[in-house]
């Protein structure tokens, strides 16, 4: 296991001993076995649920931030919209415990808005994700998430299920934007709470969508082992639904794409392309581009991921051949911009400076918030900036100046 896991385990062990608790007694307090506690303390097991981490924090008296490994959960990208950082902090500081600690004599919390209005706002949040409008989305979620949390507790009957569905969807959008903007710890919280909300709805597809978001959060945290296990478990569970349900097929396809990406990041080309082939088959089974639970799964998005995978494996030629032949007109702004960013990286690998400038300029025209906050773009500009050819190129210098400005109007 990693040094980070051992540090977390050591901190838990020290606090447990300080409280005079055996591993078994501590395990009972957090709903786990003594052997599970021992494995965590030795660093042999990672804690893969935020709800468990929150319980450990409460019982052991260790601040939640101290349990977040600095090595695994590095954050903050320059130029990140302030609202996104505020959303991350709000999620890390808040806890479902405050809703459960209400005295029995206290009245139920009162929702400020009608359920129908909150449900509609949760649905509209996906438009902001796919439009790469991160600042606007984060500002809306700062209000919407606590309102939905209150509403599900203030409502009974059938509307309660619909509100839980909306709450899970809203947490999905939060996890999506936080994963993209280097806030993996908060993305983990959001994905974990999405799964918890989905479990109240009885909709297994909504639970699987939460697992998909959790996979992305773990990748953002560079915890590829957890990301692989999460995606693999969710994919295996979805096989029980067969291939006649297009939503299940879409979610399985989206998970296969993530397994392919993870394998490519580990340098395992055979596994990466094998998983990509399985995703191709699932896309062909559905026959068209879909957007179940915000996954945008379909033939075009499989192609976008093939470009990403080829790049990770150092095959810029394949990345360019596939990417430049793709018709992505039916995909969201976010997906189209991501493809252009990857094409820019492929051009850089082939030392085609004009290709880099053209691709990043086109991407910035589409989605400036995405491009100007993307870690890959910052790394690319920094690496190219160390070359004489780039520094002497007027178009590249203008692009660097353009991308250095705030994307928030």
From TrEMBL:
Database matches in InterPro entries: Cro/C1-type_HTH, Lambda_DNA-bd_dom_sf, TPR-like_helical_dom_sf
Positions of the HTH cro/C1-type domain: 12-67
Source organism of this protein record: Amycolatopsis alba DSM 44262
Membrane-spanning residues: none
Protein name, UniProt field: XRE family transcriptional regulator
GO MF annotation list: DNA binding
């Amino acid at each position: 296991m990693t040094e980070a896991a051992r540090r977390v385990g050591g901190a838990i062990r020290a606090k447990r001993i300080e409280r005079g608790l055996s591993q078994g007694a501590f395990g009972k307090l957090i709903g786990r076995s003594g052997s599970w506690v021992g494995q965590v303390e030795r660093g042999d097991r990672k804690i893969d649920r935020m709800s468990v981490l929150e319980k450990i924090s409460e019982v052991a008296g260790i601040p939640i931030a101290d349990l977040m490994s600095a090595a695994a959960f590095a954050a903050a990208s320059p130029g990140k919209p302030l609202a996104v950082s505020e959303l991350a902090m709000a999620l890390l500081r808040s806890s479902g415990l405050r809703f459960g600690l209400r005295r029995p004599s206290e009245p139920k919390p009162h929702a400020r808005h009608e359920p129908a209005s909150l449900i509609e706002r949760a649905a509209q949040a996906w438009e902001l994700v796919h439009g790469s409008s991160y600042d606007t989305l984060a500002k809306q979620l700062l209000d919407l998430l606590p309102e939905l949390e209150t509403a599900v507790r203030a409502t009974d009957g059938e509307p309660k299920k619909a509100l839980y569905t909306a709450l899970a969807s809203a947490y999905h959008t939060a996890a999506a934007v936080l994963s993209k903007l280097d806030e993996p710890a908060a993305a983990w919280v959001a994905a974990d709470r999405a799964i918890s909300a989905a479990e109240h709805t009885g909709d297994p597809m909504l639970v699987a969508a939460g697992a998909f978001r959790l996979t992305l959060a773990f990748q953002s945290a560079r915890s590829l082992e957890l990301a692989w296990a999460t995606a693999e478990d969710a994919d295996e569970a979805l096989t029980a639904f067969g291939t006649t349900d297009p939503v299940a097929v879409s979610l399985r396809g989206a998970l296969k794409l993530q397994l392919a990406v993870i394998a490519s990041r580990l340098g395992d080309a055979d596994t990466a392309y094998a998983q990509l082939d399985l995703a191709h088959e699932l896309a062909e089974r559905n026959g068209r581009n879909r957007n179940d639970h915000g996954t945008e799964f379909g033939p075009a998005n499989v192609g976008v991921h093939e470009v990403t995978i080829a790049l990770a494996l150092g095959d810029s030629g394949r990345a360019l051949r596939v990417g430049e032949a793709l018709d992505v007109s039916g995909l969201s702004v976010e997906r189209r911009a991501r493809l252009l960013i990857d094409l820019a990286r492929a051009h850089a690998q082939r030392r085609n400076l004009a290709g880099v400038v053209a691709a990043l300029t086109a991407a910035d025209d589409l989605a400036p918030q995405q491009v100007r906050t993307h870690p890959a773009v910052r790394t690319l500009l920094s690496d190219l900036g160390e070359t004489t050819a780039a520094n002497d190129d007027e178009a590249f210098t203008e692009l660097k100046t353009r991308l250095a400005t705030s994307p928030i109007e």
